[in-house]
Write a structure and sequence with these properties.
The chain is an alpha/beta fold. Helix content is 39%, strand content 26%. The chain has helices at 15-28, 75-81, 114-121, 127-139, 144-154, 160-177, and strands spanning 2-10, 32-39, 47-55, 67-72, 85-94, 108-112. It has a six-stranded mixed beta sheet with strand order 2-3-1-4-5-6, with helices on both faces.
Length: 182
Amino acid sequence: MKTSFVFSGSGGQGIMSAGITLAQAAIDMGKHATYLPEYGPEQRGGSAKCTVVISDENIVSPLPKFCDNLIVMNEQAYAKFGEDVKEGGILLANSCRIADAEAQNGVTVISAPVDDLALEVGNPKTANIILIGILIGATEIVTEDAFRLSLNEKFKDKKPEILAMNIDALDKGIEIGKKYKR
């Protein structure tokens, strides 16, 4: 099975971090994964996008024409990529910054106030981890344990409370995502 993900938002929203951590978790599970970052021309606060493809077999192209899963963190990302989801795919939107994400062509829309949820966890920088948790809960593309291991590796040199906060964010997202499980 091959599944593609596009993460998009603004610089500083953890777009690249979310993509690379998801790809690493897939690799740790023995799957094939590609990660392709794209940045806007701005030095700070510009657009950020990355594409992740996860497969049980070799991946021929890291750039799908349409993605299976689109994760958008802001209105600009939704406006630019909102129609790039395959029929039957998932559009995951940050409802704190995207007022009306709409379903088209059999796409499942999951709209969650991830900015607000991240503040509940204790740090606005955990919004991207909440989104990954929602994806894992809804799709099981990687196991919860594999992603936790990836987080452990990512935050091994940080204070233990940083890892704990990100694990809390992941769990919060997984809980939401399970409501949309396919």
